[in-house]
Amino acid sequence: MDTNHTTSSRALRLLAPVLLVALVGAMTGCSRGRGAEAPAVVPGTTAPAAATPGATSPAGATPAASRPAGSGSAAADTSAAQAALAKAVKDAESANGTAGKDLAAAGSSAEGDPTQ
Amino acid sequence: MSRHLTFARTSAVLLSAGLVLAAAPATGALAATSSAPSVRQSVSCSTNVLSGMKRAVNGAAARRAATLSSLTIKLATRPHLTADHRATLTALYSADGAGISGVNRQVQSDGTCDAIDADAQAIVTDYRVYALLVPQSGLTLAADAGTFGAGSLAATEPALRLAIKVMPAGSSKDRAQLLYDAMAASVSAAQADFEGVGDRVLALMPSDYPGNAGELKSETTEVAAGTKALAAAVSHAQQLAALLG
Questions:
Q1: What phi, psi does B41 have (nearest 5°)?
Q2: What value of ipTM does the predicted structure carry?
């Protein structure tokens, strides 16, 4: 009995630091993991206006797209898509309106004064 | 800009006379002789005619300066222009304004009608503000705005694919897929139409006009097709949004 008790105590003393390190490591790892899962773009935020075409990433698109299908709820996926689409439609409609005006201005000048 | 380094003094007297006559109807003697250079040159260059020509050239330069000012202001209100295109257009407006102003100064110091005739045409031929620069500006602005708009819709495609994927099977899902496919196709078409327009039109030179007018027209057609495709993409996207909602 004494021999067994001594052996168990010695093993416990030897393992204690290892277990402590493992525990701390696991806790740190979990914390990082949660952070990594957080969306890079917060849904509902406005992406900055891009001087370079195509540089804008509509809010919500990245998180939904980067999440494997089935890992989130269907409602969340739909909601993210709706938010992204609503903003993109607004942006595209506005940009196309401007493009139409600029195109008209380009044409009217050339037609009105074709030689100069 | 290099495109303005060549100040060709061709014998386009008729073209120059057109510029003068358009701006100065009071110069009746010129109006009666504007149809043929040979007749035009036979008109005596009285002090009144000389003054009239100078006023007309001054007016032509002022109108172009006003146009350049308008273009500069418009440029500031367009957020989706690429940095390169903005820089190029800004430099063109500045260079053209300085160049036209320089030609006008030269004309105002000219002492003969022939000298004015030779100098004034540069306001038209070296800059082509109305025939080339205004269309170049409009097409570049339009194409860059359209590129931004199409890019905005394209960026939603991954999220839309996922949203459609998690929809329960049925007619709504089928309809959503059809709308998505139509939207994506229209976005791709718009992007293809707008792509490279700004670079190509800004490379056109006044010295090549009217030889490059066909290219200008072709790019105009491209941009028109792009705006049409983008409008279709927006329409599909709106229907898809309603379906998802």
A1: -75, -10
A2: 0.81
